[in-house]
Design goal:
The chain is of the alpha+beta class. Helices cover about 35% and strands about 30% of the residues. The radius of gyration is 20 Å and the shape is globular.
């Protein structure tokens, strides 16, 4: 592994990584137990968000995640790969196309070579809740550290160049990673509800914020309701058609003004979504304002 790669995305010999490894290794007998403890550590220490730094860096390193205490799936993967290497466990990155719930995804996690096989390690919710260790994603590609480095640098350069052509360098981060925040709305042993925020920018310099309410169990997931915000106007849609997978656009109803939503659709999820939307709206609006001007 080259020094250039270490300094860009992973730093397995850094003091911060060594301190983390020591923390999660206390009273752990096997490396399996250490990895499972690392996933539990994520529960209390790292949030899924780019609200604190939406523009740069495009791909957060392991050290960025520790310092910012947040990131998204690829950022999580950098931290986990760094920990695995420090522990002496062969590690790769996994690009997920179809997840364990049969949903199409643009997702990254890690793979650890344990007991003569590659096991997927996924710290992103909902996977982390039920199957973070040896996650059974359906379709994926494994990349070693060098391959991942080359792929990520190419992707970053592509989005930086697009932003430069638009005369807006600050757009690169959002173009690269439009998934900017996710937060738990409700949870019990058998269910995890979250609100997922996706900020999309198009070539006409228009912004669209999608806010999905997601409901997962250990077996499947669905999205019963979403809010769409275009140029400051919010509308709401309900899943009224059977969907092939969680992101199926054919499932959605016509758009309603939030205050004029059908009464029959105003279930607990409706009120949770509205409350969560309002919770971070100010932060997201500040990001949009910086992008617009």
């Amino acid at each position: 592994m080259s020094k250039q790669i270490d300094n860009t995305y992973i730093n397995p010999e850094s003091l911060l990584i060594k301190e983390l490894v020591n923390e999660i290794s206390k009273n752990m007998i096997s490396k399996n137990d250490i990895i499972i403890n690392l996933l539990k550590w994520f529960d209390n220490n790292i949030s899924y968000s780019r609200l604190n730094s939406p523009f740069f860096p495009l791909q957060r390193s392991d050290i960025d995640v520790l310092n910012m205490k947040s990131g998204t799936c690829g950022d999580y993967a950098n931290l986990i790969v760094s920990v695995l290497i420090n522990l002496g466990i062969p590690a790769k990155y996994a690009y997920i196309e179809i997840d364990c719930f049969d949903n199409q995804q643009d997702h990254i996690c890690t793979a650890a070579y344990i007991n003569n096989s590659w096991k997927l390690i996924d710290a992103t919710l909902p996977y982390r809740k039920w199957m973070g260790f040896d996650c059974k994603h359906k379709k994926y590609v494994l990349l070693d550290v060098q391959e991942f480095y080359m792929k990520l640098k190419s992707e970053e350069e592509n989005y930086i160049n697009i932003a430069k052509k638009l005369g807006r360098d600050e757009l690169a981060g959002i173009l690269y990673a439009p998934w900017i925040h996710c937060e738990t709305a409700y949870e019990n042993k058998n269910r995890l509800d979250s609100v997922f925020y996706l900020l999309v920018f198009n070539s006409k310099e228009e912004y669209c914020l999608y806010i999905y309410y997601l409901i997962y169990s250990s077996k499947d997931g669905k999205s019963p309701i979403r809010i769409i915000v275009r140029e400051g106007k919010a509308v709401i849609q309900f899943s009224t058609q059977s969907s092939k997978e969680i992101w199926d656009e054919n499932q959605w109803s016509i758009e309603y003004d939030i205050e004029n939503s059908p009464q029959k659709c105003k279930l607990e999820e409706f009120y949770r979504l509205c409350n969560m939307y309002n919770k971070v709206l100010k932060e997201i609006q500040q990001i949009i304002d910086k992008l617009r001007y």
